[in-house]
Design goal:
672 residues; flat; three-stranded antiparallel sheet; 22 helices; alpha+beta; 13% strand; 45% helix; Portal protein; disordered N terminus; P22_portal
């Protein structure tokens, strides 16, 4: 039954072309012929043809073309180029085109809010391991054997190793100024709707590195219908690099390298005039070579570039899992092929270099369609309002120009056209009997409705962008109680929190990719004995790194107050309720430079209070234990034994001795 269902499933539109190229046959071949899966193909020529067919299908899909158009349009609108060329061609030369750019300020405000919500990733032991630890404690309590449980839990050292990796990742973020890098990603996400980042191991510097990709250089499987790329069989990434870099990176043979140099296209940006020859020579002719047969401007040098594609083939894992088929080992780790249209063989063809077989790309998505990996940003929903606002502002400016440009009705022969102009204080000589034959037309007044319409369009754009007084931290222009103001600000930040949660999801995947690379390559460097002193974070890592199992915990900032005033108010409320102490307030307010000596004083006070609390708790437990023992002895009828038998001893008063006052231990005061 399963075979009948699988046999009737429709294949995607591009599949025939891909398989035809892989098998070297026509796309109209026999349907009974078995399809050759790309992951199992080993012939270099067929692999190249199949990969290029998949690349053409991805970059030629309707969804990609729509995304490309909207992405370019969005950035042009934000930059202020909001009048299409055809509107300029149809307008007269004297007409004014005004741009009232509301998008730029709103987009920058959203970027700032999201950057304040910057997430932070932490590695924690996997929940399965935590469950195993709880199971071991339960088995010990029941007196059962716990042999083999240590191999599941991994011991208490796993947390120390994960803490060391977390510290290494955070230190590297500070080293490469991750704050600015994240700001660039957020700009792409907010404006264009999609930002793409690649996480990889930098073998030269022995660190995990990150690179922001141009979103238009990334294309997905045309039949992918999920924003999380579930069911996506491949992802194509377009690169443009120097020929010599490509030859060195992929270690191409001389014959293939010469063929690639012959097919390279000189970059216009790389042309230098004679005045820049010393700068060119500084590269030692690695990238810039003689122009050869092509005449260059000023006899300069050219920079040859080549375009190649990186194809991440994710295989049938999603489809196989859905139909309860266990993927083979060949498909489990995926496959990566680097191909170019200039060669019949792939530049690279092998397994995914990621230790876990994951695609190293991280997507930062804004608004999106429910069934497409391509998303859109803040500009597309406001396109109509922004264009309408520009038209209204242009009409108002044009009316102002016409109002200042005086128009006259003059009887023929009274004045010449050159006599009339807009000079201030102009005097025109007219015969006395022709004074009434020159008449100035009144200027055109701007209707008040146009101002109201422009204001409404302003408000409409800000409403769609969810930017208003409360979002900006101000007070609404109404008499509203303080609690209602807090609720209004919380509701206005709801959409911002949604973007922040999307950012946190991407950051969680990013942290997992970074940790996988650190674990894999740090263990490899330890085996080689190549750990340097500047990688001291790895000195605490053992030799069993490959067995580490972890989850990623995101320290959320979407629910935290924004700005110093908001953080201070929140911290003071928590202090009044007893949730935190003075040191907690100082640690929570991150944007205020608190004196380190004052923080040290708060820390000492906390330690003294904790010490006094522990001492009092110990004394209370001792009293409770003595009271319990006394009650137990009284209930059992056991009396304290006395030495010898005789009359009861006399009291101090009867013996003529003054009674002694018992000494009391001094009670320690808090803070002493």
């Amino acid at each position: 039954m399963r075979g009948q269902i699988r046999g009737t499933l429709p294949q995607p539109a591009w599949w025939d072309a891909v398989q035809a190229a892989a098998e070297g046959r026509s796309a109209r071949g026999s349907e009974e012929q078995s399809l050759t899966i790309l992951a199992r193909q080993r012939d270099p020529k067929r692999v190249t043809k199949a990969a290029l067919a998949a690349v053409d299908a991805a970059f030629g899909s309707k969804a990609y073309r729509h995304f490309r158009q909207n992405y370019l349009m969005a950035w042009e609108m934000v930059r202020g180029n909001q009048w299409p060329p055809h509107m300029f061609a149809q307008a007269a030369d004297w007409k004014v085109r005004v741009t009232r750019n509301k998008l730029f300020g709103a987009v920058e405000q959203i970027n700032a809010l999201l950057l304040d919500m910057k997430p932070a990733g932490m590695l924690v032991p996997e929940r399965k391991a935590a469950n195993a630890a709880e199971m071991r404690e339960a088995m010990q309590a029941l007196g059962l054997g716990v042999e083999g449980m240590d191999s599941i839990v991994g011991g208490g050292s796993d947390r120390e190793k994960l803490d060391a990796i977390t510290q290494a990742i955070q230190a590297e973020h500070e080293h490469r100024n991750e704050h600015l890098h994240l700001g660039n990603l957020i700009s792409d996400m907010v404006v264009g709707g999609l930002a793409v980042e690649k996480i990889f191991w930098n073998d030269d510097e022995r660190i995990v590195d990150a690179k922001q990709l141009y979103p238009l250089d990334v294309a997905f499987d045309p039949d992918c219908r999920n924003r999380q790329l579930r069911g996506c069989k491949f992802i194509a990434v377009r690169h443009k690099a120097d020929v010599e870099d490509v030859i060195e990176r992929f270690e191409l043979p001389r014959r293939v390298a010469d063929q690639l140099r012959h097919s390279a296209v000189p970059s216009v940006d790389g042309v230098f005039n004679d005045a820049d020859i010393p700068m060119v020579e500084a590269y030692d002719n690695l990238y810039f070579t003689e122009s050869g047969g092509q005449e260059m401007v000023g006899g300069g040098m050219k920079r040859d570039k080549i375009e190649f594609y990186e194809l991440y083939y994710l295989g049938e894992r999603s489809f196989s899992a859905e139909h309860s088929k266990v993927p083979t080992g060949e498909l489990s780790a995926g496959r990566v092929a680097c191909v170019t249209k200039e060669l019949e063989r792939p530049l690279y063809d092998g397994e995914n270099p990621d230790p876990k077989g994951e695609c190293p790309l991280v997507l930062y998505q804004n608004y999106g369609y429910g069934h497409s990996p391509y998303t859109y940003g803040e500009v597309e929903p406001n396109l109509g309002n922004q264009i309408a606002l520009n038209i209204i502002m242009s009409a108002m400016a044009m009316n102002s120009v016409l109002n200042q440009n005086a128009q006259w009705i003059v009887e023929e022969g009274v004045l010449t056209k050159d006599d009339l102009d807009n000079r201030p204080g102009g005097v025109f000589e007219v015969a006395s009997n022709k004074i009434n034959r020159v008449q100035r037309l009144p200027g055109i007044e701007i209707p008040s409705s146009m101002f109201a319409l422009a204001e409404r369009l302003d408000d409409a754009i800000m409403d769609v962008l969810n930017i208003n007084d409360t979002t900006l931290g101000g007070t609404p222009q109404t008499h509203t109680p303080a609690y209602a103001l807090q609720m209004a600000q919380s509701m206005n930040l709801a959409r911002m929190r949604k973007k922040g949660e999307s950012l946190e999801a991407s950051w969680r995947r990013r942290t997992r990719l970074e940790a996988n690379l650190y674990i894999a390559f740090a263990a490899l460097l330890r085996q080689r004995g190549e750990l340097h002193q500047d990688l001291g974070e790895f000195l605490r890592l053992g030799d069993q790194l490959s067995s580490l199992r972890f989850d990623v915990k995101i320290v959320s900032k979407t629910e935290r107050p924004v700005g110093f005033i908001g953080e201070m108010q929140f911290a003071l409320e928590a202090f009044k309720s007893g949730m935190i102490d003075k040191l907690g307030v100082a640690n929570f307010v991150t944007d205020y430079p608190i004196d380190p000596e004052l923080k040290e004083l708060f820390r000492v006070q906390r330690e003294n209070e904790l010490l006094n609390a522990r001492m009092q708790n110990t004394a209370l437990r001792a009293q409770q234990q003595q009271a319990g023992m006394a009650a137990q002895q009284a209930s059992s009828g056991v009396m304290t034994p006395t030495v010898g038998a005789g009359p009861e001893p006399a009291t101090p008063e009867e013996a003529g001795v003054a009674p002694q006052v018992p000494m009391q231990a001094p009670v320690s005061q808090p803070g002493v």
